[in-house]
């Protein structure tokens, strides 16, 4: 049994912050952000009440970009330092990015319906570019699950995740480079386009989304590692 | 409730629902893993002979 146990990969810890503390922080921050959005932040002069979608829409979009950047960083670590945990961490980051990407598309569509009268406009480059980014990362899963688990799958997934990061600045810049500028620009080169309670609400919502994403990341990563450990144990015992 | 208020509420409900479904999927998966770990623990902690078919003592010599 001792020789067999040596083949079982240990369950690693990624951080010292306990998961229950992260979950509690997420709950407090999201509740606080919702309270600020609905009870404190004033109505926007141009868009009125519908602008309140942006507190979460923009925060979720930046969180999705952060997840994809995290996936690329972990992929880079896998390729450069051959860190054994980096492949799984990169995969979970991409998964988180796609969940937040789905929320960006859904909340953006709802806002578009109020403001533009359409759920989706194919003529808008910034929308289509985000969809391209989203579908690119969807294809990551097709690539990953079409290969047998092992070093080849880890290497190809890492290269793919690393290439995907190129699309993030393109998608981010597209909103600013769009000719007709119908998509509101929240951040300019001179800083945020708002102040006062709107800025405070946005900052709280942004921190809430980042903490929530990190909590879900840790939860999913823990589950995946446990799953891997159970499979290893089964192989040893059978 | 105005149309804008309805849409904004719908947007936040969608965010809540997606996160809730995701957490539920994770919880179900962890529940399954817990069950599998219990089964494996039962197999490894069972005393010698338990869980295996009983054998007749073979004559030696």
Annotate the secondary structure layout.
The complex is a heterodimer of chains A (238) and B (61).
Chain A: H1 2-6, H2 19-40, H3 53-81, H4 86-115, H5 125-145, H6 151-164, H7 167-177, E1 187-188, E2 191-192, H8 196-237
Antiparallel strand pairs in A: 1-2
Helix pairs in contact in A: 2-8, 3-4, 3-6, 3-8, 4-5, 4-6, 4-8, 5-6, 5-7
Chain B: H1 3-45
Summarize the model shown.
The complex is a heterodimer of chains A (238) and B (61). By secondary structure, chain A is mostly helical. Chain A has one domain (24-237): Four Helix Bundle (Hemerythrin (Met), subunit A), CATH 1.20.120.
Q: How would you describe what is shown here?
A:
- The complex is a heterodimer of chains A (238) and B (61).
- Chain A is mostly helical.
- Chain A has eight helices and two strands, in the order αααααααββα.
- In chain A, α2 runs antiparallel to α8 (196-237) and α5 runs antiparallel to α6 (151-164).
- Chain A has helices at 2-6, 19-40, 53-81, 86-115, 125-145, 151-164, 167-177, 196-237, and strands at 187-188, 191-192.
- In chain A, a hairpin with a 2-residue loop joins β1 and β2 (191-192).
- Residues 1-8 of chain A have low confidence and may be disordered.
- Chain A starts with a helix and ends with a helix.
- Chain A has one domain (24-237): Four Helix Bundle (Hemerythrin (Met), subunit A).
- Chain A is globular, with a radius of gyration of 20 Å.
- Chain B has 61 residues and is an all-alpha fold.
- Chain B has one domain (1-43).
- Chain B is rod-shaped.
- In chain B, 5% of the residues are buried.
- Classes of the chains: A mainly alpha (238), B mainly alpha (61).
- At the A-B interface, α3, α4 and α8 of A face α1 of B.
